[in-house]
Amino acid sequence: MKKALLILSVLFITMSYGQEVKQVPQINVSGEGKVKVAPDEATIAVTVETKGTDAKNVKKQNDEKIEAVIKFIKKMNLAPSDFKTQRVSLNPQYDYEKKKHNYNATQTIEILLKDLSKYDELMGGLVDAGINRIDNVTFQSSKMVQYESEARKLAMKEAKVKAEDYVSVLGQKVGRAMTISDNSQTNYPQPRYASMKLMESSDMSAPRETLAVGEINITANVTVSFILE
What is the value of pTM for the model shown? Predict the structure, then answer.
């Protein structure tokens, strides 16, 4: 009997609680904020790759080239914290036709270039020093945190304006935000080489233009739920 009374009491409390819950009128909207900036930095990943039939000799050749590359980077007066070895590998590769092993050694260096006016000089010197593979060049801004904050604020403002537009015809007002979801992504421009322009130029002494860095689109996307008053 006591057990039955306990169950009925719990059910009554649950039903009472359910009756007291009220639906809060709200509106869900999305907002986007965009900030376009010119990049002032580049992260460059370059690799020295050597191949041969003797593992020890292949590794030695690779190390010698990397040593020359690092010496050149230091001559460019880059801070020690702005370049680092990212990856080192020595892998056997079996040649089924000749039935013997070859070896492939690679070392990758990542460089943070804070002065884009030195890009051509740096890349040319790296190739001369022994680099034979450019893996990636990513452009960025040294003020990314500031610009991302600006984009988020613009996204929130757009979301609120949207909500106000929707409810303006209903005689209601937009209240405080209930939930905010951030769906932001940043896209970095990749390099484009002006090789056709160089081939068509008749003045070989003119400054080289091998890069069009474009702009970085820093975009913030939010979804906001506002209470309606």
Answer: 0.68
- Tell whether 108 is covered by a domain: yes
Q: How many domains does the chain have?
A: 2
State both tokens at 202.
Answer: 């008749």
- pLDDT of amino acid 82: 96
Residue that the structure tokens 């590359």 belong to: 69
8 pLDDT exceeds 80? no
- 72 exposure class (CB count in 10 Å sphere: 0-12, 13-18, 19+): middle
Which residue, among 104, 84, 79, has the nearest Cα to 94 in the 3D structure?
Answer: 104
For 188, list phi and psi in degrees, rounded to 5. -100, 135
The encoded tokens of residue 64 equal 């010698």
Distance CA 92, CA 104 (A): 6
- Residue 8's region, left for phi above 0, alpha for psi from -120 to 50, else beta, is alpha
Cβ neighbors of 73 (< 8 A, separation 6 or more) are 83, 109, 111, 126
Q: What is the pLDDT of residue 164?
A: 94
The CATH number of whichever domain residue 83 belongs to comes to 3.30.70.2970
Q: What is the dihedral of CA 40, 125, 45, 144, to 10 degrees?
A: -10
Q: Of 140, 173, 195, which one is at a domain's C-terminal end?
A: 140
Ordered alpha helix ranges (H), the chain: 2-20, 55-75, 119-129, 144-167, 195-200
Among the candidates 140, 174, 201, a domain finishes at 140
Separation CA 59–CA 92 (nearest Å): 12
Residue range of the domain that includes 163: 24-38+144-228
